[in-house]
Structure formats: C-alpha cells, structure tokens
Amino acid sequence: MLRTFASDNNAPVAPDILQAIVDANGGDAVSYGHDELTERAVEQLRRVFGESADAYFVFNGTGANVVALSCLVRPYEAVICPASAHLQTDECGAFERFTGCKVLPVAAKDGKLHVDDLIPFTLGSREEHHVQPRVISISQSTEFGTLYRPDELRAMCTFAHENGWLVHVDGARIANAAAALGLGLRECTRDLGVDVLSFGGTKNGLLLGEAIVFFDKALHAGAAAFARKQAMQLASKMRYVAAQFSALLENDRWHEYAAHANAMARRLAERVSAIPGVRITRPVECNAVFATLDRAIIPQLQQQYFFYVFEESMPEVRWMTHHATTAQDVDAFAEAITRAVAAPAG
Q: Which pTM value belongs to this model?
C-alpha cells in the first residue's frame, strides 16, 4: 500500500503504542479514569511538566481545545488566535457553540501571532458593550508548518500575563515542534510561560487521544472534569487512552516518532526542490512541505498519492510526513512528481 502525504492523521498506529493497548486489555479496570493505568499516565505527565500540572485525557484535538479553553473564559470573554488556526478554521465553530464566547482571529501570513499583533487588543474599551480578550491561543507547530522560537513564545507569554491574559497552545504537533527546536516538552511550553497545553497524540503515533495539561490546576478552578464530561470527551474505558500516552512518554518515543517525521519532510523537500516547475513556498521546519506546481499535474499525482491542495488560487499543495513514512516512500513520491512534470501536457 502506498503511503499518503495528506496528513499525519492518516498514519498507522505505531507498533509500540498498539502493543500498549493490547497490554492494557488484561482483565477488568475501573471505568472513567479511576484505574491504575490512567493514574500512572497522569503521574508521568507530572514528571514531564511539573508536579503542579493537572492532566485530562480526551478523544481528539477539537475536544482538547474546546474543553481547555472553556475552563479559562467567562461568557463575555474572547480568545485571540491566528486566522489560520484550527480553532478558527477547522473545528466547525465548536468553541463558540460550546462556550458562547467569541474567537477574535488575526491575519498572520506565517501562521504565527506576534506581540505587535496583540497590542491593538489592549487598547479596546473595557465597557460592557464589548467582549473582553482573555486568552491567546496559538498552534505549535502552526498550520503553515512554522515554529515559534523560544524567544518569540516567551515574549508573547510575558505580554499576555502583563495584560491579565492566559496563553493556550494547540499542541496537536507539539512533539514535532519540540524535536525540531531541540527542546523538551516542558522546555518549549511551561518554561516559556504557557499556561495550558493541548498535548497531541493522534498525529504522533497514537490510535486516538489527546491530553489537556493545565500547568496550574487553579487555572480551571475545578471545572475541567465537568467541562470534559459535558463536552462528551470523558472515555469510559479511559485506560486505553492513558496506556498510549504512557507508551508515548516512555523512552521519549514521542521524540523518536516526531524527529523521524521531521527528517522525512526535510528529505522530501530536498528531493522535490530540484524538480523543474516545483517551488517550495514555506520554510520546512517540522513535518510539512508546502509547494506549488503546475495545476494540471495535481490530479494526476492524486490518483497515485493522496494529498491536499492547501491554497487553490496558487495552487499550493501540502505534503505531510509522519512516524511511519520511510525514505523509500519519500523517494518514490519524488520520482512520481518528476515523471508527472516531465510528461507532455494533454
């Protein structure tokens, strides 16, 4: 079976993760997370992020973002995010529906917010006619495959806290970001001033599952467990989600999987950048490659390899790699692109 280059969601489950699910399947266990495997996984997360960290497992990324943010805002408050953020573009308004709060999107060509983008939100009215900013939500890595450097994220968190705001990171690909930056999970989040993390597992080898990590349990004031239940994100057989995170954290498998995915993206970029008519459009910083090529070639390639057109007007495509992408997969895909480009039109 050919690999796809559409999304790291398309990846198979990593063998070690699958084995962890099998190992968790022996006998009965108390439901809804009151079991030894879930307690173990939560303790592992505390060892990574600090003893005051408070973690909650959920099914998916939208659930993680919605539950986390719902614990941080009151009905008249709002979340600032890049206009390209999944929170704004790909979660079907789930946050607004669930909380009744607004998302305040900011145009960001590179998918990143900068302190200068945030200053206008400090100048608005404090009167009751206007929603009040409360949280900045960013993606790391971003939907454009770009990275916040440590100094950028630290500056943003400092600015947010000076204005009484909180910072949430949509970390669907936080493992890829940490591996690319050469940092640990805590070093690239909590230690830079982040308050809450949606820690992604599904895009990094898991069958399903994300973890919401509050770096101070006072942030949710006891609301997280109730918000998770109301959001239909409380797994009755929690041990199977928790066991996957235990396996992901053991021996830094999260880093192994993510670093490999990143390396495969760099390999793909190197291979295709030499093909006439192919132009890499964005920095290749994690496991995403963005490129333009002749519009007529795209459907031909999509008959062999599944991938998405990211920006139709250019057209710009996005090619994603993951923990199971091999060098052979990458080289075969590059060869297919080479053949398609060289083939006579029509």
A: 0.96
